[in-house]
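Section 4.2 – Deliverable D4.2 (structural model, holo form)

The reporting period included a commitment to supply a predicted holo structure for the target in complex with fe (ii) ion. Inputs used:
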Amino acid sequence: MAKVKVFRCRICGDPYIGTEAPKRCPFCGAQQRYFVEANDWNPDEFNVTLSEVSRKNLEAALQLELDNTAFYNCAKNAAEKASDNYSIAKFKALMKVEREHASAISKFLKISPPELEKVACSANSQANTKEGWERENRAIKSYVKFSEEATESRMKEFFSALVEIETDHLDLHAENLQQLQSKTTH
Ligand SMILES: [Fe+2]
Ligand SMILES: [Fe+2]
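Output (C-alpha cells):
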C-alpha cells in the first residue's frame, strides 16, 4: 500500500497528509498541480514585494472574499432553519473555502484576517444559490482582471488559481439551479 506523505498547497499554504496530493485542496479548493511535498516548500511563498496595483487588487479581493464568506454563512444558517441537508453542506463548504481565500490574501498583505461583517441573504436556498452564482461570477471577472494586471508572476498565478476555484463554485451553483428547474417543470 502507498505510504502517506505531507504535502502543502501553494495557494493557501495549508498542509495535507495523504498518499498523493488531492484533486482539489480541501481548504482552499486549488487544483492538484499547486501542491508540493512539504520538503520542497518555499518559505517565501507569501513573501512577495507587491506592486501598487497588486496591493490594491489584493485589498479588493479581501473585501470580496470576506463578503462572500459572510453571505455563505447566512445561507448555511438559512438552510439549517429549513433542514435542507444538501444546502447546509454546500454553503458550509463554500463558507470555509472563501474564508480560506481571505486568509491567504491576508498573508500576502501581512495583516491578520479582519472580522466578518453581517451580510443579508434569503431564507430560500434556491434564491441563495442564484445569488451565489452571481457572486462567483463577479469574483471571477475581478480575478481575471487582477491576474492580467499583475506584474509579479506569483500574483498572476494566485489570481488565476482563484479564477479556477470560483469557476468550480459557479458550475456547482449552475448545476443545482438546473436540477431545481427540471424538478419544478416536470
Ligand atoms: Fe489550498
Ligand atoms: Fe473565493
